[in-house]
Amino acid sequence: MELICTVVDRGIQHLDVCYYSLRYGFMRENIYKSKTLVSLKLFNLELKKPEFVASLPCLKIMHLGRVCRGEDGPLVVEKLISGCPALEYLKLIRPFDISSQKVLLFLRVSSQTLKSLGLYYAFNKGDTDFSVEIDAPRLKYMIVKESQSDNIVSKTYDNRPVESREALP
């Protein structure tokens, strides 16, 4: 992970990291403060809740897959999204480890610039699930996979709901 910290500190614009292991790898906190990242794709890396405000002013594309464990997972993702004032494309692929959760997890996606949102969930495990509230007035495209559309609430400032549709396999 030291190499990732180094390239982020040196001003990399595109970062795509997939950690292949049975255990999660831990992403360092400098990822939350990059002034140059335009594209960030993380899979199987655990993001911890930062003790400061995330600031990724240039980030336009973010893909997050299996990046959070525990009940504070949605808060970590929310903080990351809120720190991206230029975010246009967001893809969440099973972002939370919901298999061990006993409470309903709730994710709020709020972005003034978001144009495209993809939500790809794991199948429900027991009574555990999570719901999503979307507040993105510029949202044009949304893909929902695996019959999770009942758990999504969409809002816009003029009260027109954003159409969600099931993705093709």
Short description:
The protein has 169 residues and is mainly beta. It has two helices and twelve strands; from the N terminus they run H-E-E-E-E-E-H-E-E-E-E-E-E-E.
Give the SSE layout.
Elements: H1 2-9, E1 14-18, E2 25-26, E3 39-43, E4 45-46, E5 61-65, H2 73-82, E6 89-93, E7 105-110, E8 116-120, E9 130-135, E10 141-145, E11 152-155, E12 165-166
Parallel strand pairs: 1-3, 2-4, 3-5, 5-6, 6-8, 7-9, 8-10, 9-11, 10-12
Word description of this protein:
The structure is a single chain. With 169 residues, this protein is mainly beta. It has one domain. It is 11% helix and 31% strand. It has two helices and twelve strands. A seven-stranded parallel sheet has the order 1-3-5-6-8-10-12, with no helix packed on it. A three-stranded parallel sheet has the order 7-9-11. The longest helix has 10 residues. It is globular and about 40 Å long. The mean pLDDT is 78.
